[in-house]
Design goal:
By secondary structure, the protein is α+β, with helices and mostly antiparallel strands. Helices cover about 15% and strands about 40% of the residues. Helix 2 packs antiparallel against helix 3. It is globular and about 45 Å long.
């Protein structure tokens, strides 16, 4: 059973360092009993490669511009106030636009917070070992399609 949760700015956990991004876990599935909430900020051009996972994910752009690709829909430009919902199993990616950006993301279940935590702990944010990053992703249920040669 989950209990009420309040995360004030002075009590928020330190951001996790991902490749080009900082991700703050505002609420994990352990804390909520089901969903997870994150604050994501990134510099221009940063963001994950195309990937998929079982959980739904929604992004709400707070600052800047973020370009999304979801399955066949490519280059969807989202500005402040835009909500983008990605159904579980959909291959998707995003890139922060000029001057970077900030967004909130919500997942429908557990998985992302453990992945982000392990990447922060084991993968260099400035000189990542891509094989290690892909291995960590796969261990947490993320699928990263390999581009055709």
């Amino acid at each position: 059973m989950s209990v009420p949760l309040v995360v004030s700015p002075d009590k928020a956990p330190a951001p996790l360092k991902m490749v080009g991004e900082e991700i703050t876990v505002l609420a994990s599935a352990e804390q909520t009993g089901s969903y997870e909430i994150f604050r994501q900020s990134g510099s221009e051009g940063s963001g994950p490669p195309p990937h998929s996972h079982a959980w739904d994910e929604a992004f709400y752009v707070c600052e800047g511009q973020v370009v999304f690709g979801i399955d066949a829909e490519q280059d969807l430009i989202a500005g402040p106030g835009t909500l983008v919902h990605v159904p579980g199993g959909s291959t998707h990616w995003f890139r922060f636009g000029p001057n970077g950006g900030v967004m909130l993301s919500i997942t429908s279940g557990a998985g992302a917070s453990a992945f982000f935590t392990q990447v922060d702990r084991e993968v260099s944010p400035t000189n990542p070992d891509l094989g290690l990053l892909v291995g960590v992703a796969m261990a947490h249920g993320l699928n990263i399609p390999i581009p055709a040669a």
